[in-house]
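Re: that chain you flagged

S.,

Sorry for the slow reply, it's been a week of failed gels. I finally had a moment to sit down with the sequence you sent. For the record, here it is as I used it:
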Amino acid sequence: MILGVAVVILSSLVYLIVKWLNSPSGIIYRNKDIPAPPEESWLLGHPNMSNPMYSEGGVQWLDKWTQKYPKLWKIRVGPYVDFVTADPKVIKAIFNEKPEKDHFYRYVRDWLGDGLLLSAGQKWFTRRKLLTPSFHFDILKSYHEIFNKTTNVFIECIKEKGDEEVDIFNLSLWLTLDTVLQCLLGYEGHCQIKEDDYASLMYKITGLVIKRIYAPQYAYDWVYGLTQDGKEYKELAERFEVITRKIIADRQTLHDERPEELSDQQDFLDILLSVKYDDGSKLSTRDVMDEANVFVFEGHDTTGAAISWALYLLSKNREHLDKCYQEVKSVFVDGSENVTLHQLSSLPYLSLCLKECLRLKCSVPYIGRELSKDFTVDIDGKSVMMPAGSVIHIVLDTMHRHKNHWDSPEEFRPDRFLPENMGKRDPFTYIPFSAGPRNCVGQKFAESEFRLTVAKVLYNFDIEVIGEEKIERLNAFIQKPLNLYLKFTPRS
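Prediction finished late last night. Pasting the structure tokens below so you have them in one place:
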């Protein structure tokens, strides 16, 4: 009996090992032509539990090895062995093959559903075609009044801090969440000035997802579901769904029963409820929920991080901050409360500086893609096959600062983005909003909010960094600043 059990266990183990060795991860692991750093442990691979990969130390470790092997190297996290690159030619070639999102995104599937972020193939293509007009310039113009309103609240929140040091990322996060909820869903929770259940749930769920991504032991849903974090995640996601369903149901009632009460300016939710496929059918309630959740999730923390890092970098580069201030002051002749789109488009030097900020501190430090077909890359004269189904992590943060593509990459030099200088570089050396078919559909929305917020802050305040030596980065979906405190002095 014991012998029989032992044979079954041994046979199962051999089967799993052979299956893994022939999987994309196993094939990559066995290929000795692909460089790799020394592993920390036989079980977890490269992650170091005392210096996790999402921490400042982990960020520096990832940058170190990507700087050393920018074309391609491999990383192992538990049973997953993936590729890493920061080479624009490799990235361009991969994007041309229309890869899908990598397996880490599945951790948010039961919360965000199968919307534009996570869907694949024909479903993604059809949905992308359907929703792209939602961010047309004419639609974005209708959001500008809300941008002004929420950024005015943001300015007042900073003023109320007085001489206090301000945790700028925390403040920026509530601003961008307030903005995206009002613009996309017409939901006025006013989370900048009071506690709001919907906004708080979004914040807590995102934190749990980030924590899980870097815990290989929780890769399997059934294991994660047994943990305290897994149970909390399930409970929060269910509460979040109840609120989202009510927001959608209330708006659907207006469409069906009281259309005269709808605003003349459609927001994103109105478009989701009205848009039709070629056969005349509409999105289901589940589809509407999925897309609404995805755009709120993706549309707030990235912009919040961009605003925080931009204010930090400008405060560190006084010459450029002063030049931006003089430009903003000359354009905002009637103050900053009701900035027009024309005024916003009349800030060329600020625009150059914001591009340089996104280069030095990319809000999304890396993106993952899963190859849909075999792919070959040349490494030092050797042809390396990347098997279909393998995952490649594209480290934008390193590529944007690599000496192969940028002179003095750590210097703040906005003139890099003058037309005469941009033409000298491969366009794929700078892709803060990704590239290819799955680039950021909300890029113009984010850029408008980003530029308006920074411009208003510069108009109203001088900025100083406090305790710079304590600032750290947390790489988890976004490049999140930790301990980033700024002092704001009102301008006379």
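What I noticed first: The chain has a mean pLDDT of 87.

Talk soon,
D.
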